[in-house]
Amino acid sequence: MRFLAIVFLPLIVFTGCTSISTDAQLVTNTNKGTASILVYRESAFQAGGVSLFVGKDDEYFMELRNNQYAQVEIDAGKHLIQAKASGSPPSSIDIELEENKTVCLAGKPNPEMAGAMLIPFVANMVPTFTLEKVSCPSAEKLEELTRISL
After folding, report:
1. Which end of the chain has fewer CB atoms within 10 angstroms, the N or the C?
2. 82 burial type by CB count under 10 A (0-12 exposed, 13-18 middle, 19+ buried)
3. Are 103 and 79 in contact (CB under 8 A)?
4. According to the model, what pLDDT value does residue 32 have?
5. Distances in Å between the alpha carbon of 110 and those of 48, 70, 148?
6. Which of 74, 84, 79, 86 is closest to 150 using CA atoms?
7. Taking the model in full, what pTM does it have?
8. Which region is the signal sequence (predicted)?
């Protein structure tokens, strides 16, 4: 048992971290137009103590806590956007971005995670967060949230 702790504890500690990429290239120098993605996270008790990381191609460019939102400019076209908590597997959503348009995504705790917490081994295989394409929130709704600059 001690051997397992010596081997697996460092692996969990060193591989369970997610960091924000400061050089994620969301807008390339191609002739494509750009669009924007607005991601928000409302307050929730489930997963309330962990950050929601948002990225594409395994490069995470956004970190949100409860009651926060951020907006980024990105190349128009198809993208696979990912959401995760540090140490959890990502969930993903395919989105099509039209030039000069904004797509809004709500980051929510994965309801499947509540049951998986009872079995820690299973919890490490279930994404902590999901992203859902939604209608963009009103200006009043956004005033209730804190804008995060990237």
Report:
1. N
2. buried
3. no
4. 76
5. 12, 20, 22
6. 74
7. 0.75
8. 1-24
- The one-character DSSP state at 144 is T
Average pLDDT, integer, range 37-45: 84
Structural domains of the chain in order of their starting residue, each with its CATH number: 19-147 (2.60.40)
Sign, CA torsion 99/34/79/37 = negative
48 Cβ contact list (under 8 Å, min separation 6): 66
CA separation for the pair 139, 8 (Å, rounded): 47
Sign of CA dihedral 58, 91, 52, 54: positive
What Cα–Cα distance (Å) separates residue 72 from each residue in 117, 128, 131?
32, 22, 16
Three-state secondary structure call for residue 9: helix
pLDDT digits (tens, 9 = 90+) for 8-24: 444 344 344 455 554 45
pLDDT at 129: 82
Residues 6+ away with beta carbon under 8 Å from 56: 24, 26, 74, 79, 80, 81, 82
Q: What is the mean pLDDT of the chain?
A: 78
pLDDT category, 87, cuts 50, 70, 90?
confident
Query: For residue 121, what are the CA distances in angstroms to 88, 109, 113, 116, 143?
Result: 11, 18, 12, 8, 39
